[in-house]
């Protein structure tokens, strides 16, 4: 069978992938630069084909709570938004983490703070990886660097979310969301039947088989401190299992590299070109791209710090992931940061210059 | 003698089997217990235990899920209608209802409440209005009557400072998406019987996909009102029913 290939925007790829990977429901609210997700779904009318439902909610607050409710019944549900909208969702994400509810949240980032700008940014790294809501919790965060990965990570995020009963996020940005690339559409996976959901999600609150299994309650509340501590320990053990098994990354031209660039998402795409230019100028540079921002590839970057003379962290923000890189490197080599703000995307030459400055610093 | 009387054929009333034996945390005289009983009774009579999904609020009824043996979800403050929307859309043959207090339904969750009603989601929203924040210690609610004293309006609700009470059920009756909007109480045997009919009607509407259903229960909060249960019921009849009139507001 021939692969189905389309030319799509990143946001459109998310919508196509959702329908194809057995998503049961999408709940969202318009915001630039991600509105094409909801628009594409509305145009494709998946409720007529796969039965996937699409709801335009009254707010991002409602969207995330629809996700909490739908995920609580064991269905594959998702939402998408951009930075200020994701900020509004933080309470709901915390509830989902606390009640151990799977679900997919897509953030096509724009610049902030506040209403900020509609131009691309990566300044929600901290919000995504530190948990913007209350309590000790983690969200699995995947950072796509291409339209293809926008499509591929939808199913991956759902798989991880259900495997660990935890919300998962695709942390994209306005560049990846808006740019068009060739996409090999992911394989078609049918939506699970209600019987399959009852089997795979025996915890879900949907009435299925209640007389055999007993009552299921979805809640994050526990007023007994001893029980609440136990519940928190359980969550922490789960997070450790995710750290142990789910770190994903990509390394390019790292084998002989003396200088490393660590970047994710669109900053990594731009850095690829910077590395090409740097190598033409005799700088042996390589790229390390974390794909999971949480769990962060701490050990892998730690190992690289024995090989490299210095690391430049390129982000479209004022310096957020750089702290995780420094933590991983444990002071062995210099780690600097280069970023542009306000919706401006750095060009490869700026990155090469930053690399040269790092070289000067390391000498 | 007793043995002769206690026979199944002589049974005229029993606790609904879906209402379990967990000790309720509600204060003496509180309306929530009666409302819980009516929900359990109606679900049992309709044979919907394995089809029901309840969504409990933040507020006094946060632990509703402990007392009625059906599947539940516990929502964030005000967001129960959003959870219920998703449950019903994804499981259209389920009986989905939210259970909310006045702060939850008519204040922090106003957007979710009105939009869910107006979308005509085929669910039932149960709104227990006792005109005060019970769980947090008796603060002013969106439904607190003008002149009524609470710990955050200790000299009485003054519209110049606190604004007016919100009659959200009146608003709901004007929305295209609502099928059935009613206001009931549970302070007397007759009132409980009328309320029971409202639950049955709303749940049947929900199962038949007729649109959204809102049941407001005007209730008491003897602790928050600082009255005995009997006095609270009297006070409710004398003051609350003037502003919150009992009866059907809409039945499509």
Number of strands of chain A: 15
Oligomeric grouping of the chains? heterodimer
What series of H and E elements makes up the topology of chain A?
A: EHEHEHEHEHEHEHEHHEHEEHEEHEHEH
CATH topology of chain B: Rossmann fold
Described by strand count, sense and barrel closure, the largest sheet of chain A is: 7 strands, mixed
Work out the helix count of chain B. Answer: 10
Task: Just give the CATH class of the largest domain in chain A.
Answer: Alpha Beta
Short description:
The complex is a heterodimer of chains A (363) and B (252). Chain A is α/β, with parallel strands linked by helices and 363 residues long.
Keywords:
heterodimer, A: 363 residues, alpha/beta, Rossmann fold, 2 domains, 7-stranded mixed sheet, 5-stranded mixed sheet, 44% helix, B: 252 residues, two-stranded antiparallel ribbon, 10 helices, 9 strands, globular
């Amino acid at each position: 069978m021939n692969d189905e290939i389309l030319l799509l925007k990143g946001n459109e790829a998310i919508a196509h992938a959702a329908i194809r990977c057995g998503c049961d429901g999408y709940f969202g609210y318009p915001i630039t630069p991600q509105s094409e997700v909801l628009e594409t779904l509305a145009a494709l009318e998946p409720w007529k084909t796969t039965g996937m439902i699409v709801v335009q909610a009254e707010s991002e607050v409602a969207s995330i709570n629809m996700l909490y409710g739908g995920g609580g019944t064991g269905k594959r549900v998702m939402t998408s938004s951009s930075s200020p909208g994701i900020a509004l969702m933080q309470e709901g994400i915390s509830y989902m983490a606390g009640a151990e509810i799977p679900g997919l949240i897509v953030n096509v980032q724009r610049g902030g703070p506040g209403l900020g700008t509609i131009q691309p940014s990566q300044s929600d790294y901290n919000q995504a990886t530190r948990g913007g809501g209350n309590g000790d919790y983690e969200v699995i965060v995947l950072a796509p660097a291409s339209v293809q990965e926008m499509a591929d990570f939808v199913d991956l995020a759902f798989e991880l979310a259900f495997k660990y009963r935890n919300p998962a996020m695709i942390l994209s940005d306005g560049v990846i969301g808006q740019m068009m690339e060739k996409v090999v559409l992911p394989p078609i996976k049918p939506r699970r039947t209600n019987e399959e959901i009852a089997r795979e999600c025996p915890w879900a609150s949907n009435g299925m088989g209640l007389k055999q299994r007993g009552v299921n309650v979805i809640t994050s509340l526990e007023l007994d401190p001893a029980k609440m501590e136990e519940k928190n320990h359980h969550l922490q053990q789960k997070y450790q299992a995710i750290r142990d098994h789910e770190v994903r990354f990509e390394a390019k031209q790292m084998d002989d590299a003396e200088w490393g660039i660590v970047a994710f998402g669109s900053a990594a795409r731009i850095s690829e070109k910077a590395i090409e230019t740097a190598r033409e100028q005799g700088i042996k540079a390589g790229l390390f791209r974390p794909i999971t921002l949480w769990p962060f590839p701490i050990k892998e970057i730690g190992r690289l710090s024995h090989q490299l003379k210095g690391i430049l962290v390129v982000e479209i923000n004022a310096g957020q992931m750089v702290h995780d890189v420094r933590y991983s490197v444990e002071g062995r080599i210099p780690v600097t940061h280069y970023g542009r703000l306000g919706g401006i995307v750095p060009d490869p030459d700026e990155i090469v210059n930053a690399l040269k400055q790092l070289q000067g610093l390391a000498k | 003698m007793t043995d002769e009387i206690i026979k199944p054929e002589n049974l005229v009333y029993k606790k609904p089997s879906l209402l379990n034996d967990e000790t309720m945390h509600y204060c003496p005289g509180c309306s929530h217990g009666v409302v819980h009983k009516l929900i359990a009774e109606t679900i049992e009579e309709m044979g919907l235990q394995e089809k029901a999904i309840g969504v409990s609020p933040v507020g006094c009824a946060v632990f509703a899920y402990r007392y009625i043996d059906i599947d539940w979800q516990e929502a964030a403050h005000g967001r129960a209608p959003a959870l219920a929307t998703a449950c019903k859309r994804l499981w259209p043959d389920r009986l989905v209802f939210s259970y909310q207090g006045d702060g939850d339904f008519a204040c922090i969750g106003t957007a979710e409440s009105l939009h869910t009603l107006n979308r005509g989601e085929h669910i039932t929203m149960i709104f227990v209005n006792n005109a005060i924040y019970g769980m947090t210690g008796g603060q002013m609610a969106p439904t607190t009557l003008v002149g009524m004293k609470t710990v955050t309006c200790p000299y009485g609700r003054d519209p110049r400072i606190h604004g007016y009470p919100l009659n959200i059920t009146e608003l709901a009756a004007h929305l295209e998406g609502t099928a059935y909007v009613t206001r009931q109480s549970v302070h007397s045997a007759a009132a409980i019987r009328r309320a029971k009919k409202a639950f049955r009607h709303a749940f049947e509407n929900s199962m038949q996909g007729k649109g959204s259903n809102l049941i407001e229960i005007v209730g008491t909060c003897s602790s928050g009102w600082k009255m005995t249960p009997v006095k609270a019921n009297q006070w409710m009849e004398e003051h609350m029913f003037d502003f919150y009139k009992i009866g059907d507001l809409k039945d499509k």
